[in-house]
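Summary of Year 1 activities. Much of the first year was spent building the evaluation harness for sequence design. The harness presents a backbone, in tokenized form, and records the residue chosen at every position. We chose the following record to illustrate the format because it has been used consistently in internal testing since the harness was completed.
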């Protein structure tokens, strides 16, 4: 499924190149966003009077690259602790900003900022000051043609994004223990080679696939759903129901010992219950209670399709 994201990291030339080089990104464009002026020119934006920021529009296939991965690139390619300034570029037009287009992106920003903020603090840096807003109702004004893919046209042009900042913790999205914590030990390099990128990030980094696009969201095929990482039986088709939430939903697992439940504070103060495979610890999704569904347990086990393999009966 194709999604759109918006990032501002100072001068847009270097950020544009960083994003267009990422596998799974289908299109990028630079422009102006977040201000009040209509059809602004580069010269107008440079005065700081339009309220716009230099913005990169990123169009991506969320089955090939996750929004979280884009967010990591955004945070580490510039200094998100610097207010209205990146290097020698000074002014509100060079502010750090991220505008989300759906709730999944908003939640990823909330959790990602907390995780990266902790990494920055540990390295002796200040807090993240990036502007976070909904893109709903905003207009992206495309910049002049000579700005589009500027560093492709001018390989030696100015690039303030050639350096990487504090690394994003590789295991920050999830505290899955790979070695010795579960009966089946997963070799992540082998798993990464075997699976597509999104499946790996969901299973081992607790990513979430986009709603209404998963292979098993609406399927009624009779069979058993197994962990995509290790093959452990997790759910059965007779316990699946149509919740309308956008992800495969079950009212109970195959057995109590098929899954492990973990307290998830990634969206604190909101506390959720994460579902993992009890054999290998891979992330499946979350379980919610008391939502009023007409099912025997009054539970909705909201599971990512890419975490599962359906074995037909």
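For this record, the design step produced the sequence shown next.
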């Amino acid at each position: 499924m194709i999604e759109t994201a918006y990032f501002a990291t100072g001068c847009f030339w270097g950020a544009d190149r960083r994003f267009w080089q990422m596998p799974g990104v289908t299109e990028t464009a630079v422009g102006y966003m977040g201000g009040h002026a209509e059809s602004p020119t580069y010269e107008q934006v440079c005065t700081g009077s339009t309220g716009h920021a230099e913005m990169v529009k990123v169009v991506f296939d969320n089955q090939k690259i996750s929004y979280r991965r884009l967010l990591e690139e955004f945070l580490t390619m510039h200094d998100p602790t610097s207010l209205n300034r990146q290097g020698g570029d000074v002014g509100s037009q060079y502010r750090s900003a991220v505008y989300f287009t759906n709730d999944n992106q908003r939640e990823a920003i909330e959790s990602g900022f907390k995780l990266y903020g902790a990494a920055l603090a540990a390295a002796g840096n200040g807090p993240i000051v990036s502007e976070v807003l909904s893109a709903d109702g905003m207009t992206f004004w495309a910049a002049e043609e000579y700005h589009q893919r500027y560093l492709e046209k001018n390989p030696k042009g100015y690039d303030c994004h050639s350096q990487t900042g504090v690394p994003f913790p590789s295991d920050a999205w999830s505290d899955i223990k790979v070695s010795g914590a579960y009966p089946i030990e997963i070799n992540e390099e082998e798993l990464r080679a075997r699976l597509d990128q999104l499946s790996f990030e969901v299973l081992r980094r607790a990513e979430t696939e986009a709603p209404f696009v998963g292979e098993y969201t609406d399927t009624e095929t009779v069979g058993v759903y197994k962990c995509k990482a290790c093959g452990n039986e997790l759910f059965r088709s007779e316990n699946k129901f149509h919740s309308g939430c956008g992800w495969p939903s079950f009212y109970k697992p195959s057995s109590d010992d098929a899954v492990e439940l973990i307290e998830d504070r990634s969206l604190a103060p909101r506390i959720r219950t994460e579902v993992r495979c009890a054999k290998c610890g891979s992330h499946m999704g979350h379980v919610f209670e008391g939502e009023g569904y007409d099912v025997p347990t009054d539970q909705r086990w909201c599971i990512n399709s890419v975490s599962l393999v359906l074995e037909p009966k």
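The first helix runs from residue 12 to 20. Quantitative recovery figures across the full test set are reported in Table 2.
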